[in-house]
């Protein structure tokens, strides 16, 4: 292992895990932010799913006056085309890839691993999964968008083209406008990926109906 793995909040099932969900938080949050949703998903014990909620490194954020906070990449501008800093995205995607590979080395098969992300975390998930060299169980991209969508067609690998990608967004999202999420959804499908799209009456957050839908999706995927 060439670098230290990202620190994580880890929630283990009561029996030895045979599946894993790696869930990436949004800007300024940490792995602790989404960890409380695990019991809300009400997954049956028989599924034996481990959840990992990694912490992004701290870095200065340009649009926040250079304030340091946990972030997967810098945001230099709110422009649709240049919101995500590609170099930062690549760096974080590499760190998450190492985390996935560590789970595979621990005995969990790649096709039993779900990569999930909210907002900035979703950007990393949508960047990494189409370029990852092993087939994953699924991808969950919540209230998010895509970094440099024009690169996808030339950089994507075939191995995850059939992998289910669940995309969900709030109709009243003022942080990441819904059109940005929908644009990412369209780009994925144009490039031959199997993405689905769902909107909810909410802002830049998650709601109970969305959690219920996530639970059903995970149960279908991993049972």
Automatic annotation (TrEMBL):
The keyword Nuclease does not apply. Residues 11-221 form the Phospholipase/carboxylesterase/thioesterase domain. InterPro entries: AB_hydrolase_fold, LYPA1-2/EST-like, PLipase/COase/thioEstase. Keywords: Hydrolase. The keyword Cytoplasm does not apply. It holds the Pfam family Abhydrolase_2. GO terms for molecular function: hydrolase activity. Gene3D superfamilies: alpha/beta hydrolase (3.40.50.1820). Belongs to the AB hydrolase superfamily. AB hydrolase 2 family. This is Carboxylesterase. It comes from Alteromonas mediterranea (strain DSM 17117 / CIP 110805 / LMG 28347 / Deep ecotype).
């Amino acid at each position: 292992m060439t670098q230290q793995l990202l620190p994580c909040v880890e929630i283990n099932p009561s029996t030895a895990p045979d599946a894993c969900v790696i869930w990436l938080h949004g800007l300024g949050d940490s792995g602790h932010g989404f960890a409380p949703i695990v019991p809300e998903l009400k997954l049956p014990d028989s599924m034996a799913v481990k959840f990992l909620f990694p912490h992004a490194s701290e870095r200065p954020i340009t649009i926040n006056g250079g304030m340091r906070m946990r972030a997967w990449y810098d945001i230099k501008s709110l422009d649709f085309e240049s919101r995500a800093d590609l170099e930062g995205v690549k760096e974080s995607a590499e760190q998450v890839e190492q985390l996935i590979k560590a789970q595979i080395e621990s005995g969990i098969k790649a096709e039993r691993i779900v990569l999930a992300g909210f907002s900035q975390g979703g950007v990393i998930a949508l960047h990494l999964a189409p370029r990852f060299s092993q087939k994953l169980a699924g991808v969950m991209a919540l209230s998010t968008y895509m970094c440099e969508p024009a690169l996808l067609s030339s950089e994507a690998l075939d191995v995850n083209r059939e992998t289910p990608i669940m995309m969900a967004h709030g109709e009243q999202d003022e942080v990441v406008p819904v059109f940005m999420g929908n644009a990412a959804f369209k780009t994925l499908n144009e490039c031959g990926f199997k993405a689905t799209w769902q909107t909810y009456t909410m802002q830049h957050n998650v709601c109970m109906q969305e959690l219920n839908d996530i639970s059903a999706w995970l149960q279908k995927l991993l049972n």
